[in-house]
Automatic annotation (TrEMBL):
<feature type="region of interest" description="Disordered">
    <location>
        <begin position="308"/>
        <end position="339"/>
    </location>
</feature>
<dbReference type="GO" id="GO:0055085">
    <property type="term" value="P:transmembrane transport"/>
</dbReference>
<keyword id="KW-0547">Nucleotide-binding</keyword>
<dbReference type="InterPro" id="IPR013563">
    <property type="entry name" value="Oligopep_ABC_C"/>
</dbReference>
<dbReference type="InterPro" id="IPR027417">
    <property type="entry name" value="P-loop_NTPase"/>
</dbReference>
<keyword id="KW-0472">Membrane</keyword>
<dbReference type="Pfam" id="PF08352">
    <property type="entry name" value="oligo_HPY"/>
</dbReference>
<dbReference type="InterPro" id="IPR050319">
    <property type="entry name" value="ABC_transp_ATP-bind"/>
</dbReference>
<keyword id="KW-0997">Cell inner membrane</keyword>
<keyword id="KW-1003">Cell membrane</keyword>
<dbReference type="InterPro" id="IPR017871">
    <property type="entry name" value="ABC_transporter-like_CS"/>
</dbReference>
<keyword id="KW-1278">Translocase</keyword>
<feature type="compositionally biased region" description="Low complexity">
    <location>
        <begin position="17"/>
        <end position="49"/>
    </location>
</feature>
<dbReference type="GO" id="GO:0005524">
    <property type="term" value="F:ATP binding"/>
</dbReference>
<feature type="compositionally biased region" description="Basic and acidic residues">
    <location>
        <begin position="1"/>
        <end position="10"/>
    </location>
</feature>
<dbReference type="GO" id="GO:0015833">
    <property type="term" value="P:peptide transport"/>
</dbReference>
<keyword id="KW-0378">Hydrolase</keyword>
Length: 404
C-alpha cells in the first residue's frame, strides 16, 4: 500500500461512520505520532517485540439518568456499564459476548465516543479517549459498524459516492486517485464494481453490511467496533461476513472489537473473549481457553445454550450450571455483591455481600500455571466441586430426539 500524505485537521472534524450523516466515516491514524507507532508501519516498537494493546479499558462506567414526570426530573441512575476492564490486543479480534442487557453494546459505543462515560479510563493506542475527543481526532482513530446497515447508510447516496466522499474528506490519497481508491475498497470487501452505482435499498443485507465495512476502511482506522453486524443476516451470509472480518484483521493493522451473542460465531472468529453480564465482566481470556475450560457459571450457561447437531451428544458447557435461575439484574437497582448471584446455583453468602474481583486462573489444565490473560470474577471459581461442574461434560438436560 502506498504512503499517504499527512492529513490536516479540519475545523469541524468528521463525524463517526454509521451515525446517519452523509459524511459518516471511519478513520485511521496512519500518520500517528503516538509512542510505539511509526508512520505507515506495524505497531510494534522493536523487531519481535509484542505490539502494545490497541485499546485498554480500565474501570469503565456508563450511567444513564432515569427521568419521570412531566418535568422529567432525574429520579435514579441506570448503571448500564459498571466497572468494566479489558484490553484489545493489537491486530486481533476481541469479542464481547453476553445476553441482551448485559452492557456489551453500550461498552462498544463508549469506546468510540457515542455513549457518555461516567468514570474510568479508555486508552486507544496509549492515547486517552477524552484527549482524542478534545482535539477532534477520535473519528480518525476509532469507528463503529452498526448492526443495521440500512439505517446507518445514507439512502440518498450511492455506495460509490459515500466511499468517495470519505476518501476526499480524510485525504487518504491524492484527489485524482479518489475513484480508484473507492474501487479498491469495494473489491477488498468482495463487492462487484457495478454495485458502486447502487443505492442502499438496491442491495441485499449482506451487501449493505459489506458496503458499511468498506466505508469504515476508507480512512484506514486503527480500531473498529462491529456491533452485532451478522445478527440480522442469513447463516450462509453470516459466515461470509465473519470470514471477511478475519481476513481484514489478518491483512491489515486494524484491531476489532466484535460484539455478539452467538457463541458459535464467537468461537470461529475471536482471538479473545470478554463475557459480560449485568454491566460487568464475568470472565475474559483467550477464546480457546474460555470455551474449553470455562471458569464462571455464566460462561458455562452460555455454552450450554449452544445447539449441537446431534441431540444425543453432550453439549459443551453442560452440567449443574447449565441454566440461569433468575432474570438479569435491574441496572437501576443492581444487587450488592456479584451481579450473577440470583441466577447462580453455587452462590453463597459472600456472593451476596462482596463483589468478586477479577482473578487470574490457571492456564488450561496445567496446575499452578498462572495465566494473567485469563481472568474470572467469581468467589468460587477454584472450589473443587464448582470447578468440576463447570469443566466436566455432562448429560444434556434437554429432551432427546428418538432415532428410528
Amino acid at each position: 500500500m502506498s504512503a499517504r500524505p499527512s492529513r490536516e485537521t479540519t475545523g469541524d472534524g468528521p463525524p463517526l461512520a454509521g451515525t446517519g450523516t452523509e459524511t459518516g466515516t471511519e478513520t485511521s491514524t496512519g500518520t500517528s505520532t503516538s509512542t510505539g507507532t511509526g508512520t505507515g508501519t506495524a505497531i510494534g516498537t522493536e523487531s519481535g517485540a509484542r505490539p502494545p494493546d490497541a485499546v485498554t479499558v480500565e474501570d469503565l462506567r456508563v450511567h444513564f439518568p432515569l427521568r419521570t414526570g412531566v418535568l422529567r426530573r432525574v429520579t435514579g441512575t441506570a448503571r448500564a456499564v459498571d466497572g468494566v476492564s479489558f484490553t484489545v490486543p493489537a491486530r486481533s479480534i476481541t469479542t464481547v459476548v453476553g445476553e441482551s442487557g448485559s452492557g456489551k453494546t453500550t461498552t462498544g459505543r463508549a469506546l468510540v465516543g457515542l455513549s457518555p462515560v461516567a468514570g474510568g479510563r479508555i486508552l486507544i493506542e496509549g492515547r486517552p479517549l477524552d484527549r482524542l475527543q478534545a482535539d477532534r481526532s477520535l473519528p480518525r482513530v476509532a469507528q463503529i459498524v452498526h448492526q443495521d446497515p440500512y439505517a446507518s447508510l445514507n439512502p440518498r447516496m450511492t455506495i460509490g459516492a459515500m466511499i468517495r466522499e470519505v476518501v476526499q474528506v480524510h485525504r487518504t490519497v491524492p484527489r485524482d486517485r479518489t475513484a480508484d481508491r473507492a474501487a479498491e475498497l469495494l473489491a477488498q470487501v468482495g463487492l462487484a464494481p457495478e454495485l458502486a452505482d447502487r443505492y442502499p435499498h438496491e442491495l441485499s443485507g449482506g451487501q449493505r453490511q459489506r458496503a458499511a465495512i468498506a466505508r469504515a476502511l476508507a480512512v484506514e482506522p486503527r480500531f473498529i467496533v462491529c456491533d452485532e453486524i451478522v445478527s440480522a443476516l442469513d447463516v450462509s451470509v453470516q459466515g461470509q461476513i465473519v470470514n471477511l472480518v478475519k481476513d481484514l484483521c489478518r491483512d491489515s493493522e486494524v484491531s476489532f472489537l466484535f460484539i455478539s451473542h452467538d457463541m458459535s460465531v464467537v468461537r470461529h472468529l475471536s482471538d479473545r473473549v470478554v463475557v459480560m453480564y449485568g454491566g460487568r465482566v464475568m470472565e475474559s481470556g483467550p477464546c480457546a481457553e474460555v470455551f474449553d475450560t470455562p471458569r464462571h457459571p455464566y460462561t458455562h450457561s452460555l455454552l450450554a445454550a449452544v445447539p449441537v447437531p446431534d441431540p444425543r451428544a453432550p453439549a459443551p458447557g453442560t452440567g449443574a450450571a447449565a441454566r440461569p435461575r433468575a432474570e438479569p439484574p435491574d441496572p437501576a437497582d443492581p444487587p450488592p455483591g456479584c451481579r450473577f448471584q440470583r441466577a447462580c446455583p453455587f452462590a453463597t453468602e459472600v456472593c451476596r455481600t462482596e463483589a468478586p474481583p477479577q482473578t487470574a486462573v490457571p492456564a488450561g489444565t496445567a496446575e499452578g500455571t498462572a495465566a494473567p490473560e485469563h481472568t474470572v470474577a467469581c468467589h468460587h471459581h477454584d472450589t473443587p466441586g464448582v470447578r468440576a461442574a463447570l469443566t466436566a461434560p455432562a448429560e444434556r438436560t434437554t429432551e432427546r430426539t428418538t432415532t428410528p
